[in-house]
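Entry 12.
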Amino acid sequence: MKVVVTANGVGLDAPASPVFGRCPTYVFVDTDSMESESVENPAISAAGGAGIQAAQFIVERGVQAVVTGNVGPNAFSVLQSAGVPVYLFGGGTVRQAVEACKEGRLSAAGDASAPAHAGMGMGRGMGMGRGMGRGMGMGRGMGMGRQAAAPATPSAPQSASTQSREEEIADLKDMAGELRRQLAEVMERLDRLEGGE
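Predicted 3D structure (tokens):
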């Protein structure tokens, strides 16, 4: 099986990256032979839509699975549409990620595990949520008018009049994805500790 692991370096011993769309390197691995090819992420410097561009790049290379720490909603949608499952990996090397995937120890993501634009870092306000007509916001209303604020909570000052039902649903799905990612990481750590690794 051909898998791709997001990485912060080159080769099987590189540290796995916790981000999908803006990771520095993708390491493509044949799980049978463990032969690998490291390729620089062509979307890392994209002004917007890095997750979508990265997902399209991955799909075009014929992978059968993605192993990463987190994946945003737009990239997840592209991968899901192409029938490429995403497996969440809590940390370690590319080799460890592939081995965990081969042994069935990774949780398949049922949805995005990171909010939209999570990999953009500080200073995200400029241009956020505008869509720019490049496929941004695919499937979830993440484009026009989408706010970059934290998901709504009971203490959040947003009222029903300033946040649409669709935006609230999207925010709750983002929160659920993050909780699933955290739960998967906790379960993996528990398994390691109980297994004596």
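Annotation: The mean pLDDT is 75. The first strand starts at residue 2 and ends at 7.
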